[in-house]
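User: For a reading group we're discussing how well predicted structures match intuition. Take APC family permease. Before you show the prediction, I'll give you the sequence so everyone sees exactly what went in.
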Amino acid sequence: MSPGRAAYPSGGDHPRLARRLGLGDAVVIGLGSMIGAGVFAAFTPAAAAAGSGLLVGLALAAAVAWANATSSAQLAAQFPESGGTYVYGRECLGESWGFAAGWAFVVGKTASCAAMAITAATYALGGEARAAQVVGLAVVGALTVVLTRGITKTARLARVLLTVTLACLLVTVLVIAAFTREWAAPWAGVGDATAYGILQSAGLLFFAFAGYARIATLGEEVRAPTVTIPRAITRALGLVIALYAVLALLLLATIGADGIAASALPLLTAAQAADVSWAGVFVRVGATVAALGALLGLLSGVGRTVLAMARRGDLPRLLAAVDPGSKVPAVAQLWVAGAVAVLVLLTDLRHAIGFSSFGVLLYYAIANASAWTQTGEHRRWPHWVQAAGLVGCLVLAATLPIGSVVVGALVVGAGVFGRVWLQRRGVPRS
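Assistant: Thanks. Here is the predicted 3D structure of APC family permease, as structure tokens, for the group to look at:
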């Protein structure tokens, strides 16, 4: 019996979620969760850190993300339950490691939700404005209503948002490419970038790739999960890596690393540089919709992890309630929405991205360690892949902005040590 199996039999102690998602639905949710977090949010702080080394940082982030994705896919095929690495850590490494992964995910991805709400509001309003917080709160509330109505409605909305996003991106890229008169070499000046800056940019850009975890956290709602989840994770990540590479090359060739770092809306700046400011409407619509799609996937993923932790007593058990009609963890989703709303009011985009990346990199470090323990028919990739993913996660987490590292370590550490303290005092997990 694995270390965490006794704590939660997979039988029927709790109401189960309904398996209603197919391969296409899972890929769409993964794509929607990643695209909004990329060029529209993470490129600016990453360019500020790496300068012309942005492409190298992107490649490193993609490599670490791929190693993590293969580990997540391998684990999800064996443990197709809601909760992602929280479940995998418990099953493969023990309860404490599972809790550490779940807690890091919840706090990190709650910050991600706030970042996406702020991004959606910023693009919708055309720039930073006092009203952005109000709009961000309204967005969180509206998407939470959708999430509490059922996973199939969530998947349909994700498909619509992704279609609009990709259409706007395609038009924007084609217009900028057609009207740009002066091109620069995207790799010019790479030799001037520092190793620390490149590693920090990779850690910040990892924020843009981490959305494939939504697929694993929805494992209890996917049909034929042992086949669907691995395929959906790798396909979604592969498509997003290609898209990010194209967009990064375009931005570096048109406005350069300094232009990306100086703009909260880099694609809009690129359109202005090409004298096609009229294309800004496509940028704003695409970015707003992309951020909404990412936020939708993030909220659902955090809600499912909270559900899994509450089922096992690591969070209050009232959060494990499943609505009998919609078959979704409605109480957990409402609590997540409340936490995100607080962060929308208290944080800014750069700090939210750094804090989120720190928590999620720790989460995937535990995922890689868990996948390392798998044997026999459950092993799909060699051990060196998990080793590379584990080392990559720890290095990128350590080289994030120092404020993000300190705050992230304090919050994650407080949760882990608080759980240990309660256990030693004999406080029941209820």
